[in-house]
Amino acid sequence: MKYLTEYRDPQQVSEVLKQLASIVTREWTLMEVCGGQTHSLVRNGLLDMLPSRITMVHGPGCPVCVTPASILDEAVALAMRPDVILCSFGDMLRVPGTEKSLLQAKAEGADVRILYSPLEAVRLAVENPSRQVVFLAVGFETTAPANALSVIQASKLGISNYSILASHVLVPPAMEAILADPDCVVDGFLAAGHVCAIMGTDEYGPIAEKYRVPIVVTGFEPLDLVQGIYMTVAQLEKGEHRVENQYARSVQRTGNTMAMGSIREVFTVSDRSWRGLGLIPNSGHEVKEQYAAYNARLRFGLSTTAVENDGGCISGQIMKGLKKPRQCPFFGTSCKPEHPMGAPMVSSEGACAAYFQYAAESAISE
Predict the structure, then answer these.
(1) How far is residue 112's CA from residue 79's CA, in Å, rounded to a whole number?
(2) pLDDT tens digits, residue range 53-70?
(3) Does residue 366 belong to any structural domain of this protein?
């Protein structure tokens, strides 16, 4: 298929949709992994434009959505300490823990600050030598390099009052966990382009082969997405299952070797609990022993206890592709962005927030 360059051109999007309609002969269920892709699909009305035989379901590629309540409880406990400045990205403040969110802790007097980079937190530690500065380090492979670099920089500068509370998660193990679920409905994946820009594409090959599903690395513009859907369906219709790269303008097979080098220096692969999905083996990053001084869990003697406290939120079923946001009985009633019950309504990349913001009047089928 010809790779096009005008990624917002409605005429080119329409042309790919026509080509897609001409090849699909049966029902297929595809999952876009990334929350950014979900928002683009919903915001641009693409779900309503697809042939009726194609169903898009929304995966666990929103780091805020999959951060478990137990991590938030740890962060809140640290934030309530008078000697701690707790830093995080903005979306994390409203995610509910077991009893409260970081925003509620801030309202109660905790020193919680929104930053755009962990390197800002390192500078904050230099400026506040009498306080402990902790950065809540969440995200996929995309944010891990910057968090790793913050630890490396703090170590080189000899900063003793900086640490990170790591809640990093990895995409390929989550995809495999979804495919291994006996209730899995996913026939093919759109993989997140920005994650693959860091990690490359090699890890997807064994998954595609083992589970016999096509995996297409895809960008985020409307044409990226419909082209990625076309490429996935074209494989399915031919009985093929391989990794393809629609996002070749940004993704190389080997990824970003310098970024991956920083990750490997600071982090080691570990088991990780995902909100709504439970414990997934080898699906996270934890700080290596050589950088233990910058591991907030060790510095403050934290003990993580896995808990689920979403009050009936069906985020796990949504992120497995088993249900859509509007199938939740609380969607748009008890659960709204201003009063979210679960993380998918909190995050700017959450599927529920996307449906609430962009699809209230849509004819998107459930």
Answers:
(1) 6
(2) 999 999 998 888 888 889
(3) no
